[in-house]
UniProtKB/TrEMBL annotation:
<dbReference type="InterPro" id="IPR049484">
    <property type="entry name" value="Rv0078-like_C"/>
</dbReference>
<dbReference type="GO" id="GO:0003700">
    <property type="term" value="F:DNA-binding transcription factor activity"/>
</dbReference>
<dbReference type="InterPro" id="IPR009057">
    <property type="entry name" value="Homeodomain-like_sf"/>
</dbReference>
<dbReference type="Pfam" id="PF00440">
    <property type="entry name" value="TetR_N"/>
</dbReference>
<dbReference type="InterPro" id="IPR001647">
    <property type="entry name" value="HTH_TetR"/>
</dbReference>
<dbReference type="InterPro" id="IPR023772">
    <property type="entry name" value="DNA-bd_HTH_TetR-type_CS"/>
</dbReference>
<dbReference type="InterPro" id="IPR050109">
    <property type="entry name" value="HTH-type_TetR-like_transc_reg"/>
</dbReference>
<feature type="DNA-binding region" description="H-T-H motif">
    <location>
        <begin position="34"/>
        <end position="53"/>
    </location>
</feature>
<dbReference type="Pfam" id="PF21351">
    <property type="entry name" value="TetR_C_41"/>
</dbReference>
<dbReference type="GO" id="GO:0000976">
    <property type="term" value="F:transcription cis-regulatory region binding"/>
</dbReference>
<protein>
    <submittedName>
        <fullName>TetR family transcriptional regulator</fullName>
    </submittedName>
</protein>
<keyword id="KW-0238">DNA-binding</keyword>
<feature type="domain" description="HTH tetR-type">
    <location>
        <begin position="11"/>
        <end position="71"/>
    </location>
</feature>
Length: 197
């Protein structure tokens, strides 16, 4: 019997821990998740968790990174389906706000994430989002679709608006109503960037 490569075994262990954590964090939340139960569900030890993620907080960061990667892929698909670059940008931003209605994203990314990991602006995923948005806005500005504004400044303002809208929705007593209001206001805000005439 051949022995599996170490790299493959590490990836499998990490995937098991992230999968178990994602299920637990998404249903009972970060604070209520027992590390003993989580590792038992994964068929691993607490030592494996500490070895790969440092602690429960490190595991949460890994779970958020996985969810964020999935969100980004979904947003890319939304943008790619659009009829033009501006519609793609707008649809992608709107889809992000709408994702705040999804229970796993609400609990893990928008509630527990900031409570445990701190300000989302310090997360590595936020930097990647700003860079991508800056690039998109720069291309839209060069094409004459939006006003001649600084692309990074606009990206940071738009990212802030979408993040705060998503957090508002995640904490709202009537999340669908908050989502509708947020998207309506967000569309009006984005319209202000368009070149008229």
């Amino acid at each position: 019997m051949t022995r599996r490569p170490r790299k493959e075994m590490i990836a499998e262990t990490r995937a098991k821990l992230i999968g178990a954590a994602r299920a637990a964090f998404g249903t009972v939340g970060y604070a209520e998740t027992s590390m003993d139960e989580l590792t038992a569900t994964a068929g691993l030890t607490r030592g494996a968790l500490y070895h790969h993620f440092g602690d429960k907080k490190g595991l949460l960061a890994a779970v958020i990174a996985e969810i964020d990667a999935e969100m980004n892929e979904r947003l890319r698909i939304v943008s790619d389906r659009a009829t033009d670059p501006w519609a793609g940008f707008r649809d992608e931003c709107t889809a992000y706000i709408e994702m705040a209605l999804e229970p796993e994203i609400q609990r893990v990314v928008l509630r527990d994430g900031p409570a445990v990991l701190g300000d989302p602006w310090t997360w590595p995923t936020q930097s990647a989002c700003i860079l991508s948005m800056t690039d998109s806005l720069g291309r839209l500005r060069e094409a004459g679709v939006i006003l001649a504004v600084d692309a990074e400044a606009a990206a940071r303002l738009i990212a802030g608006a979408t993040l705060h809208a998503a957090q508002w929705i995640a904490h709202a007593p009537d999340a669908p109503q908050a989502s509708r209001k947020a998207i309506e206001a967000f569309d009006a805000m984005l319209d202000g960037l368009l070149v008229r005439g």
